[in-house]
Design goal:
The structure holds two protein chains of two kinds. Chain A is mainly α. Chain A has a domain at 304-542. Helices cover 72% and strands 3% of the residues of chain A. Chain A contains 24 helices and two strands. Chain A has helices at residues 2-21, 27-54, 95-111, 119-138, 142-151, 153-163, 168-200, 215-220, 222-228, 235-252, 261-268, 271-296, 298-303, 305-325, 329-349, 353-384, 395-398, 400-414, 422-434, 436-441, 453-483, 501-519, 522-535, 540-546; strands spanning 71-79, 84-90. Chain A has a two-stranded antiparallel ribbon with strand order 1-2. In chain A, a hairpin with a 4-residue loop joins strand 1 and strand 2 (84-90). The longest helix of chain A has 33 residues, at 168-200. The radius of gyration of chain A is 23 Å and the shape is globular. The two termini of chain A are 38 Å apart. By secondary structure, chain B is mainly alpha-helical. Chain B has one domain. Chain B contains 22 helices and two strands. Chain B has helices spanning 7-10, 14-28, 33-41, 44-66, 87-109, 120-139, 143-161, 168-199, 204-214, 218-235, 243-250, 253-280, 287-311, 318-342, 349-381, 392-395, 397-411, 417-431, 435-461, 474-492, 494-503, 516-522; strands at 77-78, 83-84. Chain B has a two-stranded antiparallel sheet with strand order 1-2. In chain B, a hairpin with a 4-residue loop joins strand 1 and strand 2 (83-84). Chain B is globular, with a radius of gyration of 22 Å. The relative contact order of chain B is 0.11. The chains are: A mainly alpha, B mainly alpha. Chain A binds chain B through residues 79-82, 146-147, 150-151, 154, 158, 161-162, 168-169, 173, 176-177, 180-181, 184, 187-188, 191-192, 194-195, and chain B through 408, 413-415, 423, 426-427, 430-431, 438, 442, 445-446, 449-450, 453, 457, 460-461, 493-495, 498-499, 539.
Chain lengths: 548, 539
């Protein structure tokens, strides 16, 4: 039954998309179909989550690792000649992100309820995007993952390109080309697996001399791990593969210096699409790092930790400074995404338990807060028809209820304690400082190892922590310019222009989640802990020395 | 030595004979008084003749490939070593005939009106004899035959490119085509004469064997080089590609379609045969030289692909855009053909040819589809400019979506056949340790994204001048539908096509030898000492 649910999560959106495009359907019917599809997928997802977390053992996939991490597997041979499987299943790493996606889907379709241009196509493309996103989070075969990664790219391209702002074509093609370069890096790694894995696989990934693209098996296979780890015969390859994968996923995250597509895409995208882009699509990058890069190449991850951490810190600080310099409100929020996703990179780079818990929590928290911030901007933009921060003012007086919710959203983005932005950042920073002990004790091929590690880590940590202050700076400054001050007549809305109940619904639900996650971060952390312990077993020795 | 015509072997050329018969009928029947009126009345009878002949050729080659009705692919060369009718050649012929058949359907439902009825017989006989030449290219194992096949494919192509006598561009294209063709033919003949001077034979297999035994010399290299120039001309390999965009733009669209796939399929089959024969019979001393030749061919492929992709950026005419795209795809295929000789493992080439067959199938589908949509749009709007694609989505959503799929497949998007074609190339190149080819393939794919997206952008975003619905004839829906089916059948479930290509990529020297009688009847001199081939492909 649950196996069926997993597959339904992938394919129900496609059925919905076909329904939207049926010749008989009209715009309002297509919106209903999209909403019903999103709600059905959400219900399936909730049922799946309840079953998953309610069950002790379940369908175990990995006999070797001991822990049962992946459940509800469907394993069909898709392309036999290359041994590519349709392999889907769910574990603690994918479940919270799936829930986030499903919740956002409903809200985003609600947010897109007023799309008037080619509504049928919009809803159909959104549902195809949903198919791609769920596929990315559920696929366990590398190749299948890649296919879904690409599938989610195309609808996004059209969603930005058709429904976007004035420079939509430029933004859409830039988004497409950047992501595609990343996909090609992925393809190179797959080529490598195709040739290297059959020679060394002994356990879970040994597929009778054929290449295995099973991501879980690759991470668990002793022969593969030995060959790809330091001193193994494919150690050089492992380093290259880690770099290629990192480039691919850093483009998606996006991390500086691969981030330049993001401000363009966000500024031009319509509000609902900005929400899903920031809320879910960026998380694919972080998720893929946790699913593929770190478990399969643990030693390469240690080898690269410093470079990755630098990328994270630079993203945090540079993103924050860029955000501060913007006068376009949406661009400010877009750069804040770059800055916030930097904590994900940093938290992963340092290889401590607190760090990766923080990274994961940051993805969920940012999924809520960034979607909310983009919606908050969208609500005003639809009425004011501009986003120039310097022309706003006094919204608190003219739109008090909206401003109340906006405060929740932006302060969540700011990282205020008890809201969803805080735990991720703080855990990520704690994890960074906690990395001192393992890096000091690490062998010499790990960069910055030895007694000097403390200084390096503290420098990194302090720089990253300064991002928190910069974030407070640009958010508060923005809040002041937009919401404070005397009421202005041009931003006084009445009648049909008042913020409507649909918009309040979207904001209220997001605000609710922002508060719940902030008050009770253990909800997410508890959902991932078992899986993290299992798939990060190669780092367990680090954890014990790290103290976190 | 008496040279008789072994009649049993003539039958193995059944598909070609079908075409030859049809060409004769097309030339003679219209002048016979009782039939003249019928052929003067409409294009119908001539079209029917072409369709029947191509269908017969297609069926007979499928029958030979499948071993139906007592037909089979002979395990050795036929007609005194002139031709090899092996599974590889037959599969390429299947692709060529099926493709030409669809091109005739395309012609019938779009541009037939522009050909005068009195010219119909000429036109059909040229198309059929072109297809005949191209299928001979896939079979030729004797260098003289190679030359004849290339000329047999080229002369009808010259005439067809200039068939539209009223247009200056068409005549210009034809002239350019003839000049470059003549020059490359001359160079090829020079190279062939050199090879003959060295070995006293023109048979490819003995030459390859002698080469392996006796080693390489500078003169021989020139001979091989001349041969490669002749083939490279047909493939529009850089630097003998200049005819391609002009011919593609000047010629009528169905001729462009025909030349972009059928002609290239024949030429790539010939190149594969040459490269594989050289690689298969290599000896220790010639290994280095052959790796050099293979790498050179690979390099030509890289340059061709890169040049095609870069030049496509600036095109505003859809036929020119697709012409450069086909240059780029020819480049990818040449890269893999180079691998056949550069392969370090002698047994390996047999495993590689299937990747090319697979690619040819996919390439035929996606190019036919793209050109078919282009033909419909050109017919409706009277122009081949990319601007005419503005708002195609509103004018005919099916055409727009189909065109989008074809372009993305040409680019190599996952879930389409083009993706698997390139991925297989990548797998094989990596497997042979040719890193730089993988890198070139990847970089080129990235390059190509922009110009494949450009028509899609125009289709979706530009406002059309008129939103009149574009009508499409059922036959064209058929052609586009078949292509779309091919693109997705090879993209979603590539296993079947891959298995088919693997089963049918064997060549004469990799097939188990038949009875001695056949060998003796065919082989002369060194041929009889031919090594028993490496058996079936075993992937």
């Amino acid at each position: 039954m649950n196996e069926l649910f997993v597959n339904l999560m992938i394919f129900v959106p496609l059925i919905g998309a076909a329904g939207c495009l049926l010749p008989g359907s009209n715009p309002s019917l297509s919106k209903m179909i999209a909403m019903i599809t999103a709600v059905v997928v959400l219900l399936i997802n909730i049922a799946l989550a309840m079953a998953f977390y309610g069950e002790a053992g379940g369908n175990s996939y990995l006999p070797a690792g001991g822990e049962t991490v992946v459940r509800y597997i469907t394993d069909l041979v898709w392309i036999e000649s290359v041994n590519i499987h349709y392999l889907v299943g769910v574990d603690g790493l994918s479940m919270p992100l799936l829930l986030l996606t499903s919740i956002l889907n409903v809200l985003i379709i609600a947010a897109g309820w007023n799309v008037e241009k080619q509504t049928k196509a919009f809803m159909a493309l959104y549902l195809v995007l949903m198919f791609g996103m769920n596929g990315v989070f559920l696929s366990l075969d590398f190749f299948l993952f890649y296919v879904f990664f690409e599938v989610s790219l195309l609808p996004m391209y059209f969603l930005i390109g058709i429904w976007g702002g004035p420079r939509k074509e430029y933004a859409a093609i830039k988004f497409f080309i950047y992501t595609l370069v990343g996909s090609i890096c992925l393809l190179m790694v797959m080529l490598g697996f195709y040739f290297l894995v059959p020679d060394v696989a002994t356990g879970a990934a040994a597929a009778g001399g054929k290449p295995s693209f099973n991501m879980i098996a690759l991470a668990a296979d002793e022969g593969v791990q030995q060959a790809f780890n330091h001193g193994g015969q494919f150690w050089t390859y492992a380093k290259w593969f880690f770099i290629l994968l990192f480039i691919s996923f850093a483009i998606k995250v996006p991390a500086v210096p691969f981030h330049t597509w993001l401000p363009d895409a966000h500024v031009e995208a319509p509000t609902p699409i900005s929400m899903i882009l920031a809320g879910v699509l960026l998380k694919m990058g972080g998720y893929a790092l946790m699913r593929i890069s770190y478990p399969i190449f643990p030693d390469a991850a240690k080898w690269a930790w410093f470079a990755v951490a630098i990328v994270g810190v630079v993203s945090i600080v540079y993103g924050a400074f860029c955000a501060m310099a913007q006068t376009d409100w949406k661009k400010l929020v877009a750069y804040s995404s770059v800055s916030h996703m930097g904590y994900v990179i940093l938290g992963l780079a340092v290889l401590t338990e607190a760090g990766r818990n923080g990274a994961y929590f940051q993805m969920i928290g940012h999924g809520i807060s960034s979607a909310m911030m983009f919606f908050l901007v969208g609500v005003v933009y639809e009425r004011a028809h501009h986003r120039d921060l310097n022309r706003f003012g006094g919204l608190w007086n003219t739109m008090p209820a909206y401003t109340g919710l906006a405060a929740v959203g932006f302060f969540a983005g700011l990282g205020l304690p008890l809201l969803c932005g805080f735990p991720g950042e703080v855990l990520s920073l704690m994890g960074t400082f906690g990395a001192i002990s393992w890096i000091e004790a690490a062998p010499s091929w790990v960069p910055m190892s030895g007694p000097g590690a403390g200084t390096t880590i503290i420098t990194l940590g302090v720089l990253a922590a300064s991002g928190v202050i910069l974030t407070a700076g640009y958010i508060l400054w923005m809040f002041q310019r937009v919401y404070m001050g005397p009421a202005r007549p041009e931003y006084t809305y009445s009648g049909r222009d008042m913020v409507n109940s649909r918009e309040y619904f979207v904001m209220a639900v997001l605000a609710l989640f922002a508060i719940i996650l902030g008050v009770w971060p253990a909800s997410v952390l508890g959902m991932i802990s078992n899986t993290f312990n299992a798939i990060y077993a190669p780092f367990s020795s680090l954890m014990s020395t790290a103290g976190f | 030595m008496t040279i008789g015509l072994p009649w049993s072997e003539v039958l193995t050329l059944l598909p070609e004979l079908c075409l030859l018969a049809a060409v004769c009928v097309a030339l003679i029947a219209p002048v016979l008084p009782p039939l003249r009126a019928m052929f003067r009345a409409s294009h119908g009878p001539m079209t029917a003749l072409a369709v029947v002949a191509l269908a017969a050729a297609l069926l007979s080659s499928i029958a030979m490939l499948g071993g139906w009705g007592g037909l089979s692919a002979p395990a050795d060369t036929v007609l005194h070593g002139m031709l090899a009718v092996d599974p590889f050649a037959l599969s390429v012929k299947v692709i060529i005939y099926a493709f030409t058949l669809l091109v005739v359907v395309l012609w019938m439902s779009t541009t037939r009106g522009s050909v005068r009825i009195a010219d119909g017989p000429d036109y059909i006989s040229l198309v059929l004899s072109g297809a005949l030449g191209m299928s001979l290219m896939a079979s030729a194992t004797n260098l003289l035959m190679v030359f004849l096949a290339i000329e047999a494919a080229s002369f009808p192509s010259y005439a067809l490119a200039g068939f539209n006598k009223q247009t200056r561009r068409s005549s210009e294209a034809s002239l350019k085509y003839v000049l470059i063709g003549a020059a490359s033919s001359a160079l090829m003949l020079y190279g062939l004469s050199m090879l003959y001077g060295y070995y006293g034979t023109l048979d490819l297999i003995p030459i390859a064997q002698r080469l392996a035994a006796e080693g390489m010399s500078a003169g021989l290299l020139m001979g091989v080089f001349g041969l490669l120039i002749g083939i490279g001309f047909k493939l529009s390999a850089v630097p003998i590609h200049f005819w391609c965009p002009d011919v593609f733009e000047g010629a009528s669209i169905e001729i462009t379609t025909f030349l972009s796939v059928a002609s290239k399929a024949g030429a790539i089959a010939l190149l594969v045969r040459v490269m594989m024969t050289l690689g298969h019979f290599s000896g220790e001393e010639t290994r280095g030289a052959l790796v050099g030749i293979g790498s050179f061919v690979g390099l030509v492929g890289v340059v061709t692909a890169t040049w095609g992709n870069l030049a496509a950026y600036f095109q505003t005419n859809v036929k020119r855009l697709l012409a450069y795209s086909s240059i780029a795809h020819a480049g990818y295929m040449i890269m893999l053909a180079g691998l056949l000789t550069a392969s370090m493992d002698n047994a390996q080439p047999a495993d590689l040819a299937y990747a090319l067959l697979f690619y040819l199938i996919v390439y035929a589908c996606m190019n036919l589809g793209a050109f078919a949509v282009a033909a419909v749009v050109a017919k409706e709007t009277g122009s081949e400019s990319l601007d005419e694609y503005a708002g195609l989505g509103q004018r005919n959503a099916f055409l727009a979506v189909a065109m989008g799929c074809f372009l993305l497949s040409l680019f190599g998007m996952p879930l389409t056949g083009g993706f698997w074609g390139k991925v297989r190339f990548g797998f094989e190149m990596w497997g042979e340790g040719m890193w730089w080819l993988v890198a070139a393939l990847v970089v080129n794919t990235v390059f190509s994204l922009y110009f494949y997206l450009k028509p899609i952008i125009i289709m979706v975003w530009k406002q059309p001048a008129s939103v009149r619905v574009m009508s499409v004839s059922p036959a064209m829906y058929g052609v586009v539908g078949v292509s779309l089916l091919g693109v997705f059948a090879t993209g979603l479930l590539p296993d079947r096509t891959t298995a088919w290509a693997q089963r049918h990529s064997a060549m004469v020297f990799t097939m188990p030898s038949q009875s001695d009688a056949t060998t003796q009847a065919v082989a002369e001199g060194p041929v009889s000492s031919r090594a028993p081939g490496v058996a079936e492909v075993d992937r």
